[in-house]
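Team,

Forwarding the record for the chain on the shared tracking sheet. I've put the sequence and predicted structure together so nobody has to dig through attachments.
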Amino acid sequence: MRPHSPRREIILAGSGGQGLVLSAVLLAEAALLEGKNAVQTQSYGIASRGGLSLAEVIIDEAEIIFQQVRRPDCVLALTEEAAKKFESWAAEGVPIFYDSTLARERSGPHFHGLPFTRIASDLGNVGSVNILALGTIAAHTGVVQRASLEHVVRHRFGGKSAQLNLQILLAGSELGAAQGAHA
């Protein structure tokens, strides 16, 4: 991450239907809740469900003029295709969190293979893999506080769905903390 810079750039990549755009929106909303500026962009492959899905979030205390990621502080890759696309950033010191359930193992100090899909399934909702991963990268980077993420998750989801997603967010936060904070 950039020393002495409040600007943070996060890439969330995977397959259409994994909820990565929602995770990016939640991350941006949490940043806004903390009084920061945020920009969220997204792009999809040919098929919205199953094709490559990419969401980027830029968070800064200052006005955000250039709205594209130039050098990410962290990359989340939930599929092999996404991991392959962004793995070169690890050589530049960017932490790459990838789903070891769906992507082949990678080695090196900046690769963090975690079984996101398996853990989300074990927690009762494989469809919340995005929330689990979001908690992980937020805790690892310190880009927003967990309380802010909890607030936006509670607001976005209702009832039992909110409670389950809050539990999954907490599990992700614990995973991220275990990987060592770099903020």
